[in-house]
Amino acid sequence: MEMFSTIIPSKSMYERAHYEQQLIEKIQNDLKRFDLILRRTHDQQNVFYLGDRKSFEIVSNQFML
After folding, report:
1. What domain of life does the UniProt record list for this protein's source (predicted)?
2. Following DSSP, what letter does each residue of 22-43 receive, concatenated?
3. Within its chain, how far is the Cα of 7 from the centroid?
4. Cβ density class 31-57: b for 16+ within 10 Å, e for less
């Protein structure tokens, strides 16, 4: 928990951290608003799946059968 209370030493680092925090919040809000899902695939190549939640649930349920 100590790591999260560390003071950021420079203004530029603070601005960058603030920008990235806003960017993450915008992405999270857009995912909720458009009912999208973002998931990392099972392979080791850092590939992500972005699609609508309903089709993802259909495909994942078919895979589980």
Report:
1. Eukaryota
2. HHHHHHHHHHHHTTEEEEE-SS
3. 25
4. eeeeeeeeeeeeeeeeeeeeeeeeebe
Give the pLDDT of residue 3.
58
Q: What is the dihedral of CA 17, 25, 2, 13, to 10 degrees?
A: 0
In this structure, what token pair is assigned to residue 42? 């099972």
pTM of the model: 0.67
Tokens standing for 45? 């190549």
pLDDT on residue 2: 60
In whole angstroms, what is the distance from residue 61 CA to residue 53 CA? Answer: 12
Looking at residue 46, what is its pLDDT? 87
d(CA 35, CA 11) in angstroms, rounded, equals 36
Task: For residue 38, give both structure tokens.
Answer: 């973002």
